[in-house]
């Protein structure tokens, strides 16, 4: 197992050079019985996505391989699966995680969606209605700031949130509007209603 773990780590270092050649062995190592080997393989798969390794026909296989740890892995494995999904733009895995019963997993999915270039605004918008105030607040913050969505594009989301029945959702929208830059006049009008 220590040799397989070292191999997974080495594949991560080789990824920028050999790209596609590392995918088959990494997919096998991501399914290893040893958790530490799986974690190293997930790190290397994330790196493969970051350097632009084309998946081609292997995209479906990668989604299938990642599905198991997304459902049954420990918190670290699940978080790494989301990082791999984001680095390879495997949106179906992020969508699944955004529906997870665990607030923490939904939060991680929203963070991964917001960190993507370009961000997955569809997931961020849907998370503004999440049952968890923490997930809602994160989605709002990503829509307004780091996700790069223009203030004008975020206004309809906040307007709908201000009309919601849930007090916490309305409060989150009001706070976010106070941080909005680029559409301050529109924010004032919405808050004044």
Output the radius of gyration.
Answer: 19 Å
Largest sheet: none
Low-pLDDT ranges: none
Helical content, roughly? over 70%
Calculate the mean pLDDT score and round it: 86
Strand content: under 5%
Instruction: Write the H/E string, N to C.
Output: HHHHHHHHHHHH
**Distance linking N and C termini:** 62 Å
For the secondary structure, the number of strands is 0
What can you tell me about this protein's structure?
The longest helix has 17 residues, at 2-18. The chain has twelve helices and no strands. By secondary structure, the protein is mostly helical. The model has no long low-confidence stretch (mean pLDDT 86). Helix content is 74%, strand content 0%. The N and C termini lie far apart (62 Å). The protein is elongated and about 65 Å long.
Keywords:
single chain; 193 residues; mainly alpha; 74% helix; 0% strand
Give a quick precis of the structure.
The protein is mainly alpha-helical and 193 residues long. The protein is built from twelve helices and no strands.
């Amino acid at each position: 197992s220590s040799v397989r773990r070292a191999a997974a780590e080495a594949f991560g270092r080789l990824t920028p050079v050999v790209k596609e050649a590392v995918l088959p062995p990494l997919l096998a190592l991501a399914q290893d019985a040893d958790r530490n080997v799986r974690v190293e393989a997930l790190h290397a798969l994330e790196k493969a996505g970051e350097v632009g390794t084309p998946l081609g026909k292997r995209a479906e296989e990668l989604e299938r391989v990642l599905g198991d740890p997304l459902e049954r892995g420990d918190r670290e494995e699940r978080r790494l699966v989301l990082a791999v999904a984001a680095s390879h733009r495997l949106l179906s895995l992020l969508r699944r995680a955004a529906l997870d019963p665990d607030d923490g997993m939904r939060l991680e999915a929203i963070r991964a969606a917001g960190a993507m270039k370009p961000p997955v605004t569809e997931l961020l918008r849907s998370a503004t209605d999440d049952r968890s105030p923490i997930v809602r607040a994160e989605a709002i913050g990503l829509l307004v700031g780091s996700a790069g969505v223009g203030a004008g594009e975020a206004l309809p989301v906040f307007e709908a949130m201000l009309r919601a029945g849930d007090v916490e959702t309305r409060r989150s929208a009001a706070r976010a509007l106070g941080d909005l830059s680029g559409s301050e006049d529109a924010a004032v009008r919405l808050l004044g209603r």
